[in-house]
Amino acid sequence: xxxxxDLSSRxxxxxxxxxxxxxxxxxxxxxxAKVQVTTGGLTQTQVYDGQSGxxxxxxxxxxFGLGTAESVNRxxxxxxxxxxxxxxxxxxxxxx
Length: 96
Prior knowledge:
Layout: H1 7-10, E1 15-19, E2 34-39, E3 42-47, E4 62-65, E5 72-78, E6 84-91, E7 94-95
Antiparallel strand pairs: 1-4, 1-7, 2-3, 2-5, 5-6
């Protein structure tokens, strides 16, 4: 069975943020990092566990749906070692 999404072709104005983590020392893929994205009054959280299916692991980016938001206010990454990295301001977003 193959499942395909045609959401981006049906909705040309699809707004999203795609985040790919990259560590600098150990754990270069950022496995175990927690990412929080704030847009307006909404905060979304995802933990990057690298899992993509049953008994598998892949280095996929994290995707956050942004609805009608034109930009992102804040991105906070809590790395597995405890370090917190924060980006604030009118941050750019991807678009379909």
